[in-house]
Specification:
The complex is a heterotrimer. Chain A is mainly alpha-helical. Chain A has 15 helices and 4 strands. Chain A has one domain. In chain A, β1 and β2 form a beta hairpin. The radius of gyration of chain A is 24 Å and the shape is globular. By secondary structure, chain B is of the alpha+beta class. In chain B, 28% of the residues lie in helices and 19% in strands. Chain B contains 19 helices and 23 strands. The two termini of chain B are 48 Å apart. Chain C is of the alpha+beta class. Chain C has 5 helices and 5 strands; from the N terminus they run ααβαββαββα. The radius of gyration of chain C is 26 Å and the shape is elongated. Chain C starts with 12 loop residues before the first helix and ends in a 14-residue tail after the last helix. The chains are: A mainly alpha, B alpha+beta, C alpha+beta.
Amino acid sequence: MPDLIQIAIILVKIVALTFLVVLPLVPISVYFERRFSAVIQDRVGPNRVGIPLSLFGFKKDFHFFGLIQPMADGLKLFLKEDFTPAHVRKTFYWLAPVLTVAPALITVCVIPFGSPITIFGHTEKLVIADLDIGPLFVFAVSSLTVYGITLAGWSSNSKFPFIGGVRSTAQMISYEIALGLSIIPVLMFFGELNLGKIVQYQADNGWLLLPLWKNGHFSLPDPQTALFWIPAAISFVIFTISIFAETNRMPFDLPECETELVGGYHTEYSSMKFALFFMGEYAAMVIGSALIVTLFLGGWSVGFTADKWIQGLHIGGFHFGGLIHLTAFVGKLVVFILFFILVRWTVPRFRYDQLMKLGWVIFFEAALINVFLAALILAAPHLTIAILGIGTVLLVVVTAAVIWVAKVSEESPKILRA
Amino acid sequence: MSDTISATAELNLPKDLAAAKGMVNVEIDGIWHQFPKGTRMIEACRQAGTFVPHYCYHPKLSSPGNCRMCLVQMGMPPRPAPGQEPQRDDTGYEPIGWIPRPVIACANTISENMGIRTSGEVVEKCREGVMEFLLINHPLDCPICDQAGECLLQENSVEHGRGVSRFVDMKVKKPKNVDIGPRIRLDDERCILCSRCIRFMDEVAGDPVLGFTQRGTHTTLTVHPDRLLDSNYSLNTADLCPVGALTSNDFRFQMRVWFLKETPTIDVNCGSGTNITVWARGNKIHRITPRRNDEVNSCWMPDSHRLNFHYIDSDARLTEPLARSGGVSPAVFSPIPWPETLKTAAAKLKTIAPENIAIIASARMTNEELFLTRSLAAALGTGSLSLVPRFAEADALLVAADRNPNTLGAKLILETEDPFATLDSIREGVRSGAIKALIVLGEDLITDAGFLFADLANLDFLLQSHILANPTALAAHWVLPAAAFAEKRGSMVNLSGRLQRLNRAVELPGQARDDWEILRDLTLAVTEETNVARHHIEDVFKSIAEAIPAFTGLTLSKIGHHGTQIAATDYQIPLLANERARKAAGLING
Amino acid sequence: MAVIKLQRPKLNFGEKIYFGALIKGFFLTMTHAVKSLRGKSAGADSLASSGLGVTMQFPEQRWDEHLPEYYRGAPTLVTDEQGRERCVSCQLCEFICPPKAIKITPGEIPSDDPWAKVEKRPKEFDIDMIRCIYCGMCEEVCPEQAIFLRKDYLITGLKRADMVHDKDKLYQIGGVRTGLVNKWNELK
């Protein structure tokens, strides 16, 4: 019987967190994308779709800033003809959209959405699966997305989707390396792979990028933590940009760039199958943002020493602080999604060779060096200043050498003669 | 010593070389050419590749030289003083002394050592002047004029006109929209008085009803009092008219010519095989005009043939295969798909003994269709195959007595002297019941072959393929929609033994099919052969070329737009005889 | 084939780093976003903005009074001061129309008509407004000053057939146009 209750609780968490928190974020980010891009471009964006009250005799329609637009879009995609071209490889063609969405949604299970909630003495964590290998699980599962895209490109049996699929494969494999390497310093710092515990640590001791309090009291960070801010920031930049590349967002949406490849890997798709790709892309963006927020920006923690007090809030036996934290987490998520959107409408698309060069020549090396830098700093308390200095000098030399090698190894472009 | 040299030199002079061939040397725009003696200057220029603008000149008509548009500059060698030798340059030509005023190119014939300039200041000025005079009284109603788009006045005014008028006085008013004949409308204001129509009616049609009245700018084209322009060749004057003065009532305000697609093909209304151009926009034929072929119809065609195309998109057109589903009178038909039609028809045919089957085809069918009809007869094992004769009165020009366009082709393809011979016996057989099955291709037996509805209604099997709904179809068990002459490709042989091509100008309506395809598929259905050997009409023609000696070595594309003579007959098209006589007399050049 | 050697611009270190340009870009886009939210976008006033960006909110706000003189709306047929339909169905517009939107069936004017001397007028004149691209070539090519692009831009319909303007509709939108050359009125 307790097992059944446990299973029921897990089911409730899955349904609540996936379908009430993450999935609604997808249409909401689509809506934000459209409205935000509109104001950036001096336009209005979708502001009409609402409840047509005037049909029922009211004076005015209820527009509500067009927030119903995503639902209308979804409905439209549902009602469209689901067309399967004759030349596709059916099984894989049908499989591909699923393979794109499912991994993105599976990764939700390790994200801590808030601090534990206690009801009638029973404490429940706001995470579906409290795995001890959180980030690794996320990487492992989200890598599967590439199969979806590759299969979509290949099974479409058409030129442009195929090019899109191949591009996507190369791009994702390349950036997974930078992605994995870039968070090694973070994991070294926390000494922990459980995302829940990482967030709890940040709530207590300051966010990784904002270490301004310790053990629940405001205080300047100790020298080690302060110094670690540098590799942490580098990690943050590399990780964020790599997430852009992993989710095929602008400026790295080479697999689906319209000017060259029509629609990229989903050119031959329509109706809900296309919608699944669309959803997968946005879900990946949501999960990516969640991961960044969790690792670098304190996850669900409100910060500034307020978390302890929030966790203590209760009405009778119901400790509802976790819900406030959930709100904080979603708020951070939305802000980061807005950042994603801002980047999309600001930065022009990279050329494919630039993209690969950025991944392999710059981020790979930078992430590697960053690991050494972080190790040096973390090891520093036990070492003298002299060794720290020598280490820094060595690091600079090695960095310079890597840059030089990268520069030399770069071939001067040949002039093509026709 | 100079004697010997000059003696040999004189022998090799260009004029002597040309004279030996009956030719003369003419320099046109600086290049020396040779032309037969008696050629008009304008014709020489045309052959040399230089177009001289003109209105009144027509190669098949006499040249009165009254439009003055073809003015060119001419030069002759100076006449030597008595006793003086003509001067010659290195190449043996005498220097040309250019006449400082222009001459008309259409009415002057060339002579030895003549020079012609078709450009230059004098000529250009003259053309501009003539254009301006011609346009003085022109109403400039191009937006409503049917000739717009093929109007010589428009074309030449683009090239040689001024763009604006300097004429300040009132334009001369003349009658507009004059009803001068049943098929022709006259607008005198547009007329530029070239007299082509007058000459045509006089010299070619032999019915001189047109003429000029009044004088000067008031000169007016009109018909003789109490006469009408009602000759069967009257519409040729609309073709001839370089402007929009004479227009066809049938084509009036139907469609602008620049929308029309031209398809060269041949006329199927009589055995002459007049060469025609079909003008169609989309799937609608708007007019038919004669196409020049000096071996068949010169530049002309009779009105009766020209206007006989409206049935092609009439309401009576059959557009889908029909099978009789009940009743005899009134018969009830229902549409069925092609494969089923042919299958059921062939199945029914095979239940009837071959000696009870007869085929009546048409001499309006192409060689290819007749050839496939023959194969069908062979596949059925029947020997009763006849065509329907169609004779009427001939005229003295183009219309032949034999109104079937391919009688000679039928004789060649069916290898019989009289393809109509068995028609009477088939009719008797149908009446007596000896013939139980009849296949009728492209003919209406009741109207044209003297069959009776009651007899046809007694048949076990009657299949008809035709273009239009007709009385015979009411007695038929299967009615197949076929292709009209402008909708199919193929070849025919005219009465003078000339093999000519039909070309497809418009697409078939509805589910109608090419006759040759119907015949092929019916034959395949009868023989239960599944291997379709003939995919294109070219394949059928190839078989004809292999089987019939007269066609040996020919293909459809080798026939050419002007046909190929494949048989010798003693039939002479009267129009051509007239024309050759006039040409021999030097009246015309063409 | 000629070889065109492109000299890529030499970038300095700051430009190579690319971050400067990114930050600048963010500032640019955010400036636009803030301005457009405040209704202060460049050109918002002259374009009669609704207060968000430069956009006009269509069904409530209309562009009508802002239409420029040269605006090209729906092509129409016009009559002149004498009430004569000017079109003589020369079909030049049908010929020139790039999307083949115009279809004319010419007809003859009956002899008892006061304008019988014009002889020709359109029996049917259809412009398929689904096809029309408002290029104005029909107006330019018309030798009779009969077809004009008016300022009607709200061409809507519930069926395809509704979007085909027939002769009556074209004259109804076009109305009377004065001051045109009256070439058929002269003693001609």
